[in-house]
């Protein structure tokens, strides 16, 4: 799982931590992420993620290109839950994951994908796929048809959101809401999707990866929005409050925001709610919309 941060190479100066209000005992992977992986060198010959997101090469071991992989996963809740070799391709980060056949993300790949509108749309779709994946067992053909109009990095985000019982309201603001198109007790209802998320804790590591990935690609509005949406669900409705999920949120997720102002706000609000305060849906919506206006 995650390792505790003890010493970075090169070491991170305590004054840099204090200036950004970053605790010195954060997990090592999050510390490296916040400081842009200071000990990691780049390899310009490594371009597997770029080729994958440009639909020129296949993911391994599945041997599917990005469009094919997203089509296979979209609406296929069993695959989204049970397979562990796709998340590293849909959400690449600058760390090696459990799929040894997936390449860690390189800086030149980030810049190339960010300047490719089609690739960025694919990324967003995967995010929504994981959120939608926790929807009902609709015929896959109808799911695919309904999402043909969705763009590709955009596609990855949407895929995962659905899997987690959430829906992206606006790409501009990052605003989320519950996926309420199917009522309980249907397996596609957000109630069942939330229960699946709380029960299957390997998804907590996936969320850490997704938050890091979104920030790497300049989609900085999405990580704080995701976190503050979950906080509103916890505070207002008592959803997503299993001890394991709360621990992951407090110890890992809320720190996966590089923007200091956003991270400090998220940390503050989480602390307030844990002490008995409130964070409502209306406060969440006002915050994400105001932040979008300011940036």
TrEMBL record:
<protein>
    <submittedName>
        <fullName>SPOSA6832_03744-mRNA-1:cds</fullName>
    </submittedName>
</protein>
<feature type="domain" description="Opioid growth factor receptor (OGFr) conserved">
    <location>
        <begin position="152"/>
        <end position="269"/>
    </location>
</feature>
<comment type="similarity">
    <text>Belongs to the opioid growth factor receptor family.</text>
</comment>
<dbReference type="GO" id="GO:0016020">
    <property type="term" value="C:membrane"/>
</dbReference>
<dbReference type="InterPro" id="IPR039574">
    <property type="entry name" value="OGFr"/>
</dbReference>
<dbReference type="GO" id="GO:0140625">
    <property type="term" value="F:opioid growth factor receptor activity"/>
</dbReference>
<feature type="domain" description="Opioid growth factor receptor (OGFr) conserved">
    <location>
        <begin position="44"/>
        <end position="130"/>
    </location>
</feature>
<dbReference type="Pfam" id="PF04664">
    <property type="entry name" value="OGFr_N"/>
</dbReference>
<dbReference type="InterPro" id="IPR006757">
    <property type="entry name" value="OGF_rcpt"/>
</dbReference>
């Amino acid at each position: 799982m995650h390792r505790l941060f003890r010493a970075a190479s090169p070491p991170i100066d305590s004054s840099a931590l204090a200036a950004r209000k970053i605790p010195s005992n954060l997990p090592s992977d999050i510390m490296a992420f916040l400081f842009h992986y200071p000990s990691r060198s780049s390899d310009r010959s490594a371009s597997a993620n770029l080729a994958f997101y440009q639909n020129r090469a296949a993911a391994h071991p599945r041997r599917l290109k990005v469009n094919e992989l997203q089509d296979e996963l979209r609406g296929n809740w069993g695959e989204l839950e049970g397979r562990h070799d796709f998340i590293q391709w849909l959400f690449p980060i600058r760390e090696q994951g459990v799929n040894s056949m997936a390449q860690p993300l390189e800086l030149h790949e980030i810049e190339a994908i960010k300047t490719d509108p089609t690739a960025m749309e694919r990324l967003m779709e995967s995010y929504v796929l994981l959120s939608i994946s926790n929807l009902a067992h609709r015929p896959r053909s109808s799911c695919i048809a309904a999402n043909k109009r969705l763009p590709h990095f955009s596609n990855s985000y949407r895929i995962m959101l659905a899997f987690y019982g959430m829906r992206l309201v606006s790409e501009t603001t990052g605003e989320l809401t519950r996926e309420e198109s199917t009522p309980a007790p249907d397996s596609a209802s957000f109630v069942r999707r939330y229960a699946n998320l709380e029960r299957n804790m390997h998804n907590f590591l996936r969320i850490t990866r997704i938050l890091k990935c979104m920030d790497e690609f300049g989609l900085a509005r999405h990580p704080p929005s995701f976190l503050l949406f979950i906080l509103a669900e916890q505070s207002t409705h008592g959803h997503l409050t299993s001890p394991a999920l709360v621990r992951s949120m407090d110890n890992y997720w809320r720190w996966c925001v590089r923007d200091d102002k956003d991270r400090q706000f998220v940390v503050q609000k989480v602390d307030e709610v844990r002490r008995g305060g409130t964070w409502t849906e209306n406060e969440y919506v006002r915050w994400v919309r105001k932040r979008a206006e300011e940036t």
